[in-house]
Amino acid sequence: xxxxxxxxxxxxxxxxxxxxxxxxxxxxxxxxxxxxxxxxxxxxxxxxxxxxxxxxxxxxxxxxxxxxxxxxxxxxxxxxxxxxxxxxxxxxxxxxxxxxxxxxxxxxxxxxxxxxxxxxxxxxxxxxxxxxxxxxxxxxxxxxxxxxxxxxxxxxxxxxxxxxxxxxxxxxxxxxxxxxxxxxxxxxxxxxxxxxxxxxxxxxxxxxxxxxxxxxxxxxxxxxxxxxxxxxxxxxxxxxxxxxxxxxxxxxxxxxxxxxxxxxxxxxxxxxxxxxxxxxxxxxxxxxxxxxxxxxxxxxxxxxxxxxxxxxxxxxxxxxxxxxxxxxxxxxxxxxxxxxxxxxxxxxxxxxxxxxxxxxxxxxxxxxxxxxxxxxxxxxxxxxxxxxxxxxxxxxxxxxxxxxxxxxxxxxxxxxxxxxxxxxxxxxxxxxxxxxxxxxxxxxxxx
Length: 447
Ligand code: GTP
Description:
By secondary structure, the protein is an alpha/beta fold. The strands form seven sheets. Strands 14, 16, 17, 19, 21, 23, 26, 28, 29, 31 and 32 form an eleven-stranded parallel β-sheet that branches. Strands 5-4-1-6-11-8-12 form a seven-stranded mixed β-sheet, sandwiched between helices. A six-stranded parallel β-sheet has the order 15-18-20-22-27-30, with no helix packed on it.
């Protein structure tokens, strides 16, 4: 294989541009911060607001009429997304959805490059790239408009944090406020440079992004470590043939948009930022699924077409609340706001649930209280028990808090098949699968 990128034909007059989309899902060695929930389900398939995380991305993509082809790119086993793809084909029959598997982690740009032939098939003009672990309103239509207005080569979605200091944990964008042009991009800068950060949603012209990745690969291969692969013909084989390290990833092979590509685009390309004023969160830690659940439920509640999927408000339902049709909630239980109840879950009389995700087959017995928590598959919460976390400000991007001088999770998480005894209180804990809690616990990881 050579490093040659297919040549692009200039588009004839009157040509209507075509667009594809890629959702980056990573693989089993990613999502470690999502443990213990990712021990049982790959993070992109974890249910938030009643739907797998990845479905929120896909559903936004399907609202862009000109997108007919979507790729899920990752290095999970082929079987992982099979059912999701089958179900999506029924729900979105006008879209072709395929999984493209990297043989190992190639990085957020390396995966795109590896599958460039599939992406470029049919000669599309541009394509969206969405990080699957992002929760936002995905204003893809607005990104397309900016792309066209500016005759852009790349558009990035940005959001503003309260301070440039807080932004140093993210990719930071320095832009021209008037033209929206990206002047400078630095991933997790050492000192504050801007409060505008990368949301992990991009629109790239096919003519710009592949040559940029190719240049980054070339720079990488020209580093001293790779002098044993000097010829241009085997640049690509050297790039892809190195031995994996202990994590199953060869850091030398990994090419990342954030570290290796975006700052170059800012220097040399027509690169613009669309600043969203709508909600945005990352879904990194398991606890971050709770604020993401709240944001997606609130959005569904405010949108006429999805409002009907949620439980109707009543004395005991404080919206927004999602209850799966197969779940059973006693009429005296009080739920909400921001609660999702999964298939076949049973919620007993007098129970109180708020700011929580209750997964499949969970049982919450009478008069139990569940606040700021995730109850894992088939877990049981006893009568009069309390499973609770601590509220954090909606604007906070962290799911940890300091309690008694120790950093703990603000969300209490029970993994699969945990059992909390009657009248037991579990506070700010992360509980690994199959644990039985018979006494009160606080600020602990229960292994
Ligand atoms: P940090 O945020 O730096 O801790 O890393 P992360 O793995 O949590 O997220 P990152 O920002 O690197 O990844 C952004 C998105 O790309 C996530 O949806 C990841 O699952 C996905 N991703 C990361 N690495 C790869 C990769 O090698 N291949 C593919 N296909 N996707 C990836």
